[in-house]
Write a structure and sequence with these properties.
Elements (H helix, E strand, L loop, with lengths): L1 H23 L6 H57 L4 H49 L3 E7 L8 E7 L14 H10 L9 H6 L3
Antiparallel strand pairs: 1-2
Helix pairs in contact: 2-3
């Protein structure tokens, strides 16, 4: 009887320690949490990349608009200068003014062409980045909720995404298999994720 009681005490003590370690170190052998962090990091990078691509396109578009406005402005000035030259019988000062406008228009026109080429390249490069983020999001949404939270770096007005499993898991259960449908969806996500140490692959195979 004493041996039975002693064995029971040891078992309870071991169980309590195991639960405490699980609570204090949720990442220990926790495929579920490690996999979530890997996918979350991948999606955050994809989101930031497409956001930077969109911002670059927006800045380039605004710059192009300003250059075109300047080109148009100096074209108008050139017309006025040419009209004044005819009235003043080719005044040398007016001729110099006209030549300055012509030179300035040429500069702006070259800048417009360069900026247009740059914008085309930016849009082409952004297509793949934007498509990747959309693909990831579409694959992620069936098994994760994408939460918008404050950026941990403390940068104001910066968006940060956190993924939360849609399928709940008991607090102290490390090996918490997903339902079959979500396991299959997780496998699809791995096509776009660098699965470090095959963590997500292992988790997708848990039954």
């Amino acid at each position: 009887m004493k041996r039975y009681f002693l064995a029971l005490v040891i078992l309870v003590h071991w169980s309590n320690n195991s639960l405490a370690q699980t609570s204090e170190n949720p990442d220990s052998d926790n495929f579920r949490e490690k996999c979530r962090k890997i996918i979350s990091g991948t999606y955050l990078n994809a989101f930031n990349e497409q956001r930077r691509a969109r911002e670059a396109i927006d800045l380039a578009s605004k710059s192009l608009t300003k250059l075109k406005e300047q080109e148009k402005l100096y074209s108008s000035k050139l017309k006025i200068a040419e009209a004044n030259i005819k009235k003043e019988h080719f005044d040398p000062a007016l001729l110099q003014e006209r030549d300055r406008y012509v030179a300035q228009i040429r500069v702006f026109h070259e800048q417009v062409l360069t900026q247009e080429e740059s914008l085309v390249k930016l849009k082409k490069d952004a297509d793949a980045t934007i498509a990747l983020e959309k693909t990831l999001k579409k694959k992620i949404e069936p098994i994760f909720k994408i939460k918008m939270v404050d950026d941990p770096s403390g940068i104001p007005q910066k968006i940060y995404h956190e993924l939360v499993w849609l399928f709940p898991c008991p607090k102290f259960r490390l090996l918490c298999p997903l339902p079959e449908t979500q396991r299959n969806q997780l496998v699809l996500i791995l096509d776009n994720v660098e699965d470090q140490d095959l963590v997500c692959t292992k988790y997708s195979k848990l039954r």
